[in-house]
Amino acid sequence: MANVLSQSEIDELLSALSSGADAAAPMEEEPESSVREYNFRTANKFHKEQIRTLHLVFDNFARLLSTSLSGTLRAVCEAEVLSVEEQTFGEYNNSLPAPVILAILNINPMTGGSLMEISPEIAYAMISHLFGGTGGPSVEASKTFTEIELVIMERMIRKFTGIMVDSWEKILRVQCTLDRIETSGQFAQIVSTNETIAIITINLKIGAEQGLINICIPHLAIEPIAKQLNTKVMFSSASRVIQAQEDLIASRIMNTEVTLTAVLDRTLASVGDVSSLQIGDVIRVEHNVSNPVTVKVEHIPKFLGVVGTYSGKFAVQVVEIVKEDSEDE
User: Fold this and answer.
1) Residue 305: which residues within 8 A CB-CB, separation 6 or more?
2) DSSP string for residues in 31-95
3) Domains of the chain, with CATH numbers?
């Protein structure tokens, strides 16, 4: 609205007009105060670092979800985290549409249950693609889900639980299982109405259709892992995972079996000499007894050695390591 004059300003204008004096310009309104009301009952319980870590975790979840759905539905799927907000469960539950797909998840080591909400638009798009359809807009988006549709969505959500485990891998190892599926918010009361929850909103686009997936994690659920919801812990754990993988690769390489071959110098012989050899004949090789033999690892020369015996068996003693040329490297 435009600037509205107060009653006192109107009276001043009327008195100025009656007396013939110049009307004074109305005083500019004072800027509104930046102070806002604060309700201690709904105090923020999630730290900024925890919100940031949840954003990173579910960014990874959205990326893995896009890849998995693209292969399953044979359609171009894009998922993106829109926001990570804090809200009371009562406010969230009252805003749920009907019907809706609500999956109650158990994510260990978190306590209690978490909630995954899939909008009807996305649910019907998934079902349509799975049955060979084009995933167009459903004219009956507000109808109740049938038993067959709920079974199909249950199978899809079980795939999502595996993606959830992979998305948390950089923070800690979790186990995610599906408890049950509900289609009404009144049957999905995972915490009290005044409990604070973190709502991760993911926008999912399947072909031309798009909708929202909301994941609700109560504050009580993250208390056992609150110290680990830290980006520093995340990157340090990632470095530990990389180091563990390097150690595993090194141990496997060290235990890999290779073939060692001791090779004498080459000796030339005609085909006639070879074909006339008989049992008991002696072959004269062009290798001096004082010269070392070449020891090859697979087909690559690595050592020089001297032929001898050890414990009653032929043996080769390594006397020199063959240096590889820079060009060969």
Assistant:
1) 262, 292, 293, 295, 316, 317, 318, 319
2) PPP------GGG---S-HHHHHHHHHHHHHHHHHHHHHHHHHHTS-EEEEEEEEEEEEHHHHHHT
3) 41-244 (3.40.1550.10), 258-266+288-323 (no CATH)
Residue with tokens 């929202």: 212
Q: Maximum distance among all alpha carbons in the chain?
A: 144
Which residue type does 237 have?
Answer: S
Per-residue pLDDT tens for 89-118? 988 988 888 889 999 999 999 988 999 999
Q: Which residue has the tokens 């978190």?
A: 110
Q: How far apart are CA 126 and CA 149, in angstroms?
A: 10
Asked if the peptide bond before residue 99 counts as cis, ω within 30 degrees of 0, the response is: yes
Regions of the chain where pLDDT drops below 70: 1-5, 18-34, 36-43, 135-142, 231-242, 325-329
